[in-house]
């Protein structure tokens, strides 16, 4: 699996990245969406990965995805910035056209 991050998206990610969250996670968010197949493809900063995670090929960040969630994503994707929001897309179409900076920045910290 590959994730290309456009230059504009890289600049925006660098501007909002919290120091304590150095990694990115591709995530299929099903909270409030009903059943497990109704969800939203998203991405956020994190400070950990688990044994069930797989690394996603990327030139800028360490990016991870839970191996069980891979089915909801495409083998090759692009994270772009449109000036207001991030967009996750592939050659097959738009996966999420409206990922806010605050959603990516909020991320997920490891709970101990």
From TrEMBL:
Gene3D superfamilies in the record: HesB-like domain
- Source organism of this protein record: Pontibacillus litoralis JSM 072002
Domain Core per the UniProt entry, residue ranges:
1-99
Which InterPro entries would you find in this protein's record? Answer: ATAP_core_dom, HesB-like_dom_sf
Give the protein name, as stated in the record: Core domain-containing protein
Q: Name one Pfam family in it.
A: Fe-S_biosyn
């Amino acid at each position: 699996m590959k994730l290309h991050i456009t230059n504009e998206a890289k600049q925006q990610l660098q501007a909002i990245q919290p120091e304590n969250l150095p990694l990115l996670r591709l995530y299929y968010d099903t909270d409030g969406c009903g059943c497990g197949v109704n969800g939203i493809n998203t991405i956020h900063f994190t400070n950990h990965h688990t044994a069930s995670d797989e690394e996603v090929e990327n030139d800028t960040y360490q990016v991870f995805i839970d191996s069980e969630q891979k089915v909801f994503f495409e083998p090759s994707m692009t994270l772009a910035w449109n000036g207001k929001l991030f967009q996750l897309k592939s050659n097959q179409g738009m996966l999420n056209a409206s990922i806010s900076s605050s959603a990516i920045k909020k991320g997920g910290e490891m709970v101990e």
